[in-house]
Structure formats: C-alpha cells, structure tokens
C-alpha cells in the first residue's frame, strides 16, 4: 500500500517540477546604457503611445526609456542632421504623418507566431473621426 501511493506520488512530483521550470528563450548578454520601461511588450507599447500623445513634441531624447540603444542613437543623430530633420517633423512611429489622438495596443498574447525576440503588435489609432490600424514589430535586443 505504501509503495503504491509512492509510485503515484513520484511521477506527479516530477511532472509538477517539470512544468514549473522555465528557461529563458535567450540569454541577456549585457546591460543597456539607458534606463528601461518595465512591463510586457503590449503594456510598454501602450505606455509609449500614451506618452507620445500626452507630450506632443518631437523630442526624441524624452522617448529614450522606450527605445533600444541603437534606435535612440539613430534618431538622435537624425534629429541633428538638417537633411533628415524633415523626416522627423512628421510622426515616425505611425503610418500617418500626424500624431494620433488616441491609441490602443492589442494584447501580445492574442497575436500568433511570435518568438522571444520579434513581437508583432497591432495598434488601433484614431485622429478625430478617422481610425486606422498599424502593425508594429517590437524587437527585443540584448
């Protein structure tokens, strides 16, 4: 009787420990030079769009916590270059040239075929009575 209950208990314990052990999809290979925003991909993207809508300026340095090191450097260099400044006068983070009035980022868990590095997001944007949907690819670096 004792062995029977142990023979049932041991496989259940092994199964439970196997289900709770999670290994990361990739190793973090270094620190970032800038600060990061905390949260999952969809909540970080929502915070990004909310910040852009509340602070209607083209100050790229204010967006630094939301951007990767490489993208922040690229946009900062482009904002200082007169030949690229015109490109940044419109909204570089939307398919339209003007900044939206509202944005809603769909949950990342409802989007199929995502891996640990490339996270596709759908963003419903509105400006006045016009609405459109942008598809954004969030790429996790590290």
UniProtKB/TrEMBL annotation:
Keywords: Lipoprotein, Signal
Composition bias type Polar residues, residue spans: 91-100
Classification via InterPro entries: DUF3828 (IPR024289)
Residue ranges constituting the DUF3828 domain according to the UniProt record: 41-142
Domain of life per record: Bacteria
Lineage of the species this protein comes from: Bacteria, Pseudomonadati, Pseudomonadota, Gammaproteobacteria, Enterobacterales
Chain segments annotated as transmembrane: none
Protein name stated in the entry: Lipoprotein
Source organism (scientific name): Escherichia coli
Keyword Signal: yes
Signal peptide span: 1-27
Region Disordered, residue ranges: 80-108
């Amino acid at each position: 009787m004792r062995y029977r209950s142990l023979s049932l208990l041991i496989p259940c314990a092994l199964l439970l420990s196997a289900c709770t052990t999670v290994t990361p999809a990739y190793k973090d290979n270094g620190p970032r030079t800038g600060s990061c925003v905390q949260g999952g991909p969809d909540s970080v993207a929502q915070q990004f769009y909310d910040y852009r809508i509340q602070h209607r300026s083209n100050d790229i340095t204010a967006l630094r916590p939301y951007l990767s090191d490489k993208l922040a450097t690229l946009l900062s260099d482009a904002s200082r270059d007169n030949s690229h400044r015109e490109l940044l006068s419109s909204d570089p983070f939307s398919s339209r040239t003007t900044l939206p009035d509202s944005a809603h980022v769909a949950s990342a868990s409802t989007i199929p075929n995502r891996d640990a590095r490339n996270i596709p997001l759908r963003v419903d944007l509105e400006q006045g009575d016009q609405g459109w949907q942008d598809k954004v690819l969030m790429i996790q670096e590290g």
